[in-house]
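@channel anyone free to eyeball this complex?
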Amino acid sequence: MDLGITDRVAIVTAASRGIGFAIARELAREGARVFICSRSAENIIEAAYRIRAEVGVEVTGIRANVTSEQEIERFVAEVLNQAGRVDICVTNAGGPPASTFDEADLEMYRRAFELNTLSAIRLARLVIPEMRRNRWGRIINITSVSAKQPIEGLILSNTTRAALTGWAKTLSAEVAADGITVNNIAPGYTLTERQTELAEARAQKLGKTKEEILAQWAEQTPMKRMGQPEEIAAAAVFLASERASYITGVTLQVDGGYVRGIF
Ligand SMILES: NC(=O)c1ccc[n+]([C@@H]2O[C@H](COP(=O)([O-])OP(=O)(O)OC[C@H]3O[C@@H](n4cnc5c(N)ncnc54)[C@H](OP(=O)(O)O)[C@@H]3O)[C@@H](O)[C@H]2O)c1
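replying in thread with the prediction:
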């Protein structure tokens, strides 16, 4: 199937590693002109270089923190300056810290809302006018299975992802007639650098090995394995494609069957 996104201009935030990086690389493989950002200039330039070396196309890495209004405005302005348009916008960020109701103070909720909800809303406000002008656009928010099935001990993720999902569904209806689709991808346990680091930290705390912790996570999934970032990327690139033109307002789980609900 030809995904029909050759020469489309794509933004992927928080893409120096993990899921964001895998999505950026897959979009580049499909012929999109890709711009990526993260908080560290060194990391993001290195990531852009790695994709260029592997795929053989131009990818631009720019330092921008998704929680900073000025930095994200500058990032989008630079994309428009270099490419003249934005067609695809993948909103990704780091994850909020694990915590329970008793552990989380209001400041932690504010920070998590900034990182995982407002960051996507801010980007959409910048790119949707461009997409409207071109009567074509794709917004893909990377959320989490926690938006569908709250995860114990992750009250910040459970709260902010659900908020973003409600916002995205509302937005999808408001921009549908302009040729813009808005969808979410909800990853389950995915073997990224972050998950490996979390497993290491948890293993030390519990006196177990990293492998034992990773095996426990895999065991919670009907497929009995963790996902690969490339498996999330494949779904994201499909939703970003011409072929996904009649899909909007959905949350697609890419989770090996982790979410047990029917819808
Ligand atoms: N992996 C999973 O199992 C899983 C499951 C469900 C949901 N998710 C969610 O999916 C997202 C990506 O997860 P991941 O596992 O790929 O994480 P990861 O391996 O930790 O990668 C996070 C990326 O985000 C960048 N980043 C972090 N904070 C940023 C900020 N404020 N502004 C700009 N860039 C920022 C990091 O780069 P720099 O350090 O260079 O800034 C890095 O490139 C997270 O929101 C996570 O909670 C992950």
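from a first look: The mean pLDDT is 97.
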